[in-house]
From TrEMBL:
GO terms for molecular function: alcohol dehydrogenase (NADP+) activity; zinc ion binding. Its cofactor is Zn(2+). PROSITE patterns: ADH_ZINC (PS00059). InterPro entries: ADH-like_C (IPR013149), ADH-like_N (IPR013154), ADH_Zn_CS (IPR002328), CAD-like (IPR047109), ER (IPR020843), GroES-like_sf (IPR011032), NAD(P)-bd_dom_sf (IPR036291). The keyword Protein biosynthesis does not apply. It comes from the Bacteria. PANTHER family: ALDEHYDE REDUCTASE. It holds the Pfam family ADH_zinc_N. Belongs to the zinc-containing alcohol dehydrogenase family. Keywords: Metal-binding, Oxidoreductase, Zinc. This is Zinc-binding dehydrogenase.
Amino acid sequence: MVTAKARAVNGPDQNFRETEVTRRELDTTDVLIEIKFAGICHSDIHTAHGEWGEVNYPLIPGHEIAGIVSDIGENVTKYKVGDRVGVGCMVDSCGECENCREGEEQYCLKGNIPTYAGTDKYGEPTQGGYSTHIVVTEEFVLSIPDSIGLDEAAPLLCAGITTFSPLNHWNAGPGKKVAVVGMGGLGHMAVKIAHAMGAEVTVLSRTLNKKEDGLQFGAKSYFATSDEDTFTELAGTFDLIINTVSAKIDLNAYLSLLALNGSLVNVGAPAEPLEVNAFSLIPHRRSFAGSLIGGIRETQDMLNFCAEHNIAPNIEIISADDIDHAYKRVLDSDVKYRFVIDISTM
């Protein structure tokens, strides 16, 4: 077993503290990863603050993990010591249900095992990537292409796949008009990926403060949703809208921006319920949907796609001592566009 240095939180109103976590002995198909970088996701904050339900504290968050293989089980065939690898939002699933067999492990009918705040197949609580090491079964480890730096790769394991998957599923590409709601950690990745897929991209953000960035990332247009004229001007425009905002918004106003057969897909996960008027959907055969990360195969496809198209998140590297301050800055929308923890500071 490996004893890893980590940062944990003991309650919804507590600051992070130094701690240690014992990682399990390697099973025959397990991979031991020395973590180099871990991204900070808004999901980490929701969970640490207890906003998505009861949490079994102490909690070590982190599901945007990039590092190096430091040991392997005797039957591991996909990886060897020294390989550059990543781990995303889940570390296992039943592997037997229809969804798992289709490569959609995120929708495992028995429930996938999340990287943190879950219970693994050994009955132990899962603890995430704000730590120096993690043990994961090889089937849930991703290969990071050489052209992507490990620091930039970390956010791709959540923010990247969370936006890639719906864009891929709803066929964003040439001839499609795609709007991205929000220009944060998820939103800026959605813009870059949709543009690389060939779609015409528009950003819908509360203000125009990040307009220059949005256009640089590949957006053709950028509108402020605080301006009521935006919803009049863009009515019936988009084939697909990706909502990345983790707060309650007026979904009916955004649904009015969809063209015939258009879809609004939620990837942001606010704690509050969202309300949809049926007549926002019926008249133009519009759809309101959700999307949860991606399966392991699709996540690897995303990493390869980002390598091929030179796509990387815009990141700010922080030390482990700065996690609490980074959480505050995320809540204040004061980050461009993803915090990444340098695990060597753990």
